[in-house]
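the two lines:
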Amino acid sequence: MRTLDRRLLRDLRERWSQLLTIGLVVASGVGAYIALTATFRALDDSRTLYYETNRFGDVFATLERAPDAVGDRLAEIPGVTLVHTRLAASVRIPLESDHHPPIGMVVGLPPGGDAPLNRVRVEEGSMVEAGRSDEALLLEVFAKRNNLAPGDTIPVIMEGTLRSVRIVGLANAPDFVYPAPPGDAPVPDDERFAVLWMDQGAVSPAFQMEGAFNEVALRLGPRASEAAVLAEVDRILEPWGGRGAVGRDRQRSNFFLNMRFDQLEAISGFVPILFLGVAAFLLNVVLSRLVRLQRGEIAALKALGYHDREIGGYYLRFVSVVILVGSLLGVALGAWMGRGITGFFTQFFGLPLLEFRVPLETVAVAFAVALLFGFLGAFATLRRILRMAPAEAMRPEAPARYRKTLLEELGIGDLFGSTGRMVLRELGRRPIRALISGLGVALAVGIIVVGRFSHDAFNMIIDQHYYLATQEDVSVSLLGPTPERAIREAQAIPGVVRAEGVRTTPVRIRSGNRWRDIALHGYAEGSSLRRLMDASGRISPLPSGGIVLTTALADTLRLAVGDPVEVVLHEQNRTRTVPVTGLVDEMFGMQGHMRLDELNRMMDEGPMVSRLLLTVDPEDFGGVEARLMEMSRVGEITHKQRAVERIREVAADPQTALVLVLSLFGSIIAIGVVYNNTRVALSIRARDLASLRVIGFTRREISGILLGEQAIQVLLAIPVGLLVGRLLVSQLVATMDLEEYRLPLVITTETYAFAASVVLAAALASALLVRRRLDRLDLIGVLKERE
Amino acid sequence: MNRTLEEGMETEVLTARGVTRTYRMGEVDVHALRGVDFSLHQGEFLVLVGASGSGKSTLMNILGGLDRPTEGTVHFRDRDLTHATDRELTTFRRNHVGFVFQFYNLMPSLTARENVALVTEIARDPLRPEEALEMVGLKERLDHFPSQLSGGEQQRVAVARAIAKRPEILLCDEPTGALDYRSGVVVLEVIERANQELGTTTAVITHNAPISDMASRVVILHDGQVDEERRNDTRKSASEIRW
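prediction for all of em together
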């Protein structure tokens, strides 16, 4: 080993604790990058491969009912290479163990089961036998959540008739990766939403769908225009109750997957850069001090004939060791976190996952970028070494110049006393370093705010959506529009305190050539269980004489209050024009609201509802549910409290993990900044502090001088950090402000207090670690040597 | 020399009895002091001379409460410093001792006035910083930072800082060691003034033999022991010293 290398090891060993804190910052950055990138890649690759092997369609449409022959007309559309029509019908699955039956969807399988598009993969058990109307493949994740296995028999209510269906196998399909039940809440519910694939020929009589279909998937040729095909499909299906064809981007399952994946990709580049920036700054601080301390040695090396290149290389190797060790740690950390996140997502989506691996090029990019940032941090110091003439460097450095700070020029310097002035001037002498340090600490606070924000936003959504906007205890979906007397029937059930009805119908809202398919809700006048509420929690009125749109929808369609808008009623295949009477900035973005009587009138129907809302005496829940089940036309019964619990349960673990991981990251930055700054400050000022001890200052007093500087930086940085946190959150919200729902920009005082406390504690701990070194200050030694 | 001063000289302010100090330097023990008996009398101007390594700085550090003896006892008047806690030693230095060092040890971020104020802010009955600086002839340079002062001026600020608290004892370790002759004499004059005008008991350590002519009493250390002690019948003033 060369002598310089041996010295390198000693230099590294002497500063191990400082370098460790920097290495951890690097590890956090590299870890975050590796974890997010690898997770994104793993999920995206899995999805692509999965879609390919299972022949995911390109265009999808649902309709009321069309004879099979219509499928042939779809196949003639230019650009369409394959058409797969099928039956898809809602059913209820009254599992014995459950008062609150899951909702299900029966999907038809062609004879033999091998669908040309949206192929069903049998994961366990066997394919249904052709011609059997009592056999089904069950969505794997639902089966697992409900402890069902091939061989089990489950009750299924099809069109009001209870049947027994034997599960012959468990399956997955590309169009149900994200098993979200039809409805407006974008929460996957793998416990309560089942898909049953059954032999279409055998099961279609149960739905009066012999020789007909109500769902279609198409495959497009390589040069087909999706927009043109969508328009043509809509034209052909219009007479058959077509509800608007969509491409992959708006296919329900894929849409939600995209949304999650995009979030992941958006943060995977941005977050690591912040960490590496902090690491570069810390390396700069530590290295410039090291070079100052070794000034004489550098001069001696130069005098001995070492080239600048060799001396510069020495310090670059010093930086590289820190970066490489940090990066290695980061790769391990990233792989571990990535596996966790990927595991969570795959479980969350029921996405069948390929093997998780960290791509080699991701590791290479991470190392290269980390090294680049390391060298960036070393740059200024290296330049100083190169410029140093040996003879000059042999002499001690000129004493540091200080001057009075702005505060003193303003005449309020006297407030601080001599020691206070020392602190101020030290800060004033290196304003850039103080500023960057402050920003580092602010970033730490900000990151923790972001970590806890999802918790705040989530609670706010739950509160607003489930407790303020919706006041019912139980919501009952009816199988299609049902006369209003259903409300009176429900009201008559003992234990029901109040019953109201809502009508929801699928419509296309069109303005010029822009359109969106949405749910249109009608509320009875004086309805107290459902209220229009904007994202900030204000109740909005529901004016008569038109339609109220969410602002997200109005923005998309470029509509304002007073504009006329076309409403295509999918249930009836008719178009009406109504004025927009109001806008409401709701959290779940794409829907419309009307008065119930006006909606019914627009549809030329009598008083109809499609959903019952009930408040129920808590003691009578069981009885009420049992009675509801006996009513005709009752579909899904949603118990609000249970739904909320379920959502909370799904969200609890990842939220806690997020808060923990980001708090850890924030603390690592805060410790890195404060610890290294304090160590360097101590190294620079050990002599001054020892002199003060000699002339009679107590340990506490000199600690105050050393730590005061850090304390001021941290205390000033915290409020800035809270702002940074808010900024980061609003960025995050903006990237996630999707059409379907938006996150409210809400950060609670607790979150601010939490972030500030964590950083304060991390800073205090680092400062106290350094303070212990003050006890070992060599009082006599410093008096013996010239600085 | 007047009568009261003569009497005062017999009052022992600091006493060391049988003081030894051993350092462990790597594998070997270094005996810096080997059973020193020593006292510093009220109001006197003592010069401690000796070759490099004779133990004079070690002795001064022990007397000034910066270090503790390995064996023996040290008293400030009738207070035992030998077993004082760290906190008690700090209080002792803070209230009773002024130090002047070879390399000034000023705070680079504070002006001359503020460096002195550093001490007056924590002392019980201090001079005003301006008064102290006037005594050392730096009235015109109150607001200069150390980097704007010459070595001699910096050392005078250090002296002003040491005397501003009106200490009972002024300990100066090689106060002229880093200075040229002219600046050295000015610093010695300032120390002399403090001794005479404020009556501060003063001990100056030096390896510069001519300075001992200023002393009322001279103690010579050799190899960790008191080699010789003498009184000067006639004292030279600082301006008369030549080296």
